[in-house]
Amino acid sequence: MSTVTAERPTVRTAESGGAGWQGSSVFTQVMVFAGRSLRALREPRLLIMSLIQPFVMLVLFSQVFRGIANGPGFPAGANYIDYLMPAILVTTSTQSAMGAGAGLANDLRNGVLGRFRAMPVRLVSVLVGRSLYDLVRNTLQLGILLVAAAALFGFAPAGGVVGTLCALALALFVGWGVSWVLIALASWLRNVEVMQMVGFIAMFPLMFASSAFVPVGGMPEWLQAVARVNPLTYAVDASRGLAFGSATASSVVGALVTSAALALVGGALAARGIRRP
């Protein structure tokens, strides 16, 4: 009697290469994964909770530090809320980038990425979809903050609507670049708690040791030295200059190039990290 041995079919994924069905296009995969993440926005409580911290910071700093507008080094003729709000846009965007890293770390820990490995899917599409979701969420979040600042505190910078929208776009691009660094960390650390701790330790000093809330000239000398080499200072100054209608090309280009470099380096590291078993 002959014995027939059944062979297990070989599953070829987009990551492994080779012949066979390679699945949908990369663009379609990115859109599907972005849509998967965006479904979380159907829950309004998530967006409300993400707005609490930046709104509290906006209220506290706009009231506690508004006397700084009368001090040395403050832009002439500007209100403190006009000085503060562009910085709130940048700092909120960079802080929100931690959500992209934490979300990816959670997917890696609960086995979602393991199921994707058995499908004809390029794992890089998961990363790009996650970053697009973070960008859309940031846009909604910062847009609501801008409306609140204008309605409640009289935010009306000299650059007008065009300058404000340019400052918003710059803040979103800076946050998008930072999100790729945190996505890269998540792909290697694969732990939500560690990701949140690392993100807080990195972002908290950068935020306060910058020109975000007070002019650099009013800081102690040692802190001035730190603020002048802090990349967040350049991003805040560029965003503030756009809102005031006085931005220089060098400041804006510097912020854009730095953010693009962070995205490229973070994306390359993330692409390698996510392929690890």
Automatic annotation (TrEMBL):
<keyword id="KW-0813">Transport</keyword>
<feature type="transmembrane region" description="Helical">
    <location>
        <begin position="85"/>
        <end position="105"/>
    </location>
</feature>
<dbReference type="Pfam" id="PF01061">
    <property type="entry name" value="ABC2_membrane"/>
</dbReference>
<feature type="transmembrane region" description="Helical">
    <location>
        <begin position="249"/>
        <end position="271"/>
    </location>
</feature>
<protein>
    <recommendedName>
        <fullName>Transport permease protein</fullName>
    </recommendedName>
</protein>
<feature type="transmembrane region" description="Helical">
    <location>
        <begin position="46"/>
        <end position="65"/>
    </location>
</feature>
<comment type="similarity">
    <text>Belongs to the ABC-2 integral membrane protein family.</text>
</comment>
<keyword id="KW-1003">Cell membrane</keyword>
<dbReference type="InterPro" id="IPR000412">
    <property type="entry name" value="ABC_2_transport"/>
</dbReference>
<keyword id="KW-0046">Antibiotic resistance</keyword>
<feature type="domain" description="ABC transmembrane type-2">
    <location>
        <begin position="45"/>
        <end position="277"/>
    </location>
</feature>
<dbReference type="InterPro" id="IPR047817">
    <property type="entry name" value="ABC2_TM_bact-type"/>
</dbReference>
<dbReference type="InterPro" id="IPR013525">
    <property type="entry name" value="ABC2_TM"/>
</dbReference>
<dbReference type="GO" id="GO:0043190">
    <property type="term" value="C:ATP-binding cassette (ABC) transporter complex"/>
</dbReference>
<keyword id="KW-1133">Transmembrane helix</keyword>
<dbReference type="GO" id="GO:0140359">
    <property type="term" value="F:ABC-type transporter activity"/>
</dbReference>
<feature type="transmembrane region" description="Helical">
    <location>
        <begin position="197"/>
        <end position="216"/>
    </location>
</feature>
<dbReference type="GO" id="GO:0046677">
    <property type="term" value="P:response to antibiotic"/>
</dbReference>
<feature type="transmembrane region" description="Helical">
    <location>
        <begin position="162"/>
        <end position="185"/>
    </location>
</feature>
<feature type="transmembrane region" description="Helical">
    <location>
        <begin position="139"/>
        <end position="156"/>
    </location>
</feature>
<keyword id="KW-0812">Transmembrane</keyword>
<keyword id="KW-0472">Membrane</keyword>
<dbReference type="InterPro" id="IPR051784">
    <property type="entry name" value="Nod_factor_ABC_transporter"/>
</dbReference>
